[in-house]
Amino acid sequence: MLEQLVAEFSRPMNLPFGVVMLRLAVALVLGGLIGWEREVRHRAAGLRTHMLITLAAACFALVALELVDFQNVNVDQQRTDPLRLIEAVTAGVAFLAAGSIVINQGNVRGITTGASMWLCGAIGLCCGTGDLRLAMLATVMALVVLYLVRALVTPIARDEGSAD
Known about the structure:
This protein has 164 residues and is mostly helical. The protein has one domain (2-72, 79-162). It has helices at residues 2-8, 17-40, 47-68, 82-99, 111-129, 132-162; strands at residues 102-104, 107-109. Strands 1-2 form a two-stranded antiparallel sheet. α2 (17-40) packs parallel to α6 and α4 (82-99) runs antiparallel to α5. The chain is elongated and about 70 Å long.
């Protein structure tokens, strides 16, 4: 009985454990980079939230890869569609991101944080499926948008505001 229980939870993974660890670790780091920017800006969704989103998305991607490559199922009975995973992660993260957007007396706050959360879902999927270069490129581009574009736009917005 105990052997059956142990066997149930020790199904061999198709990917080497080191590869799985690397993908999850990269997801955490990349989500953390974007989350750090949100954290220092004192946004509701910061470091931990973004790290958890990328980790969850990477984990879902890894599970999908494992299910697609599952050998012990009759091929006629197996119905896997990796695109469903992307839809599910996108919808789930979009739900979280929408919750970060607040409209109060015509002022809208949290849209950038919501967008960064949504992007972290995509970055996590990239990490989970092994496309680490795309994940890193998206992270660098996001940081450029969050830091550089803000640094360029903020002085212009101040100048326009003082002209009134």
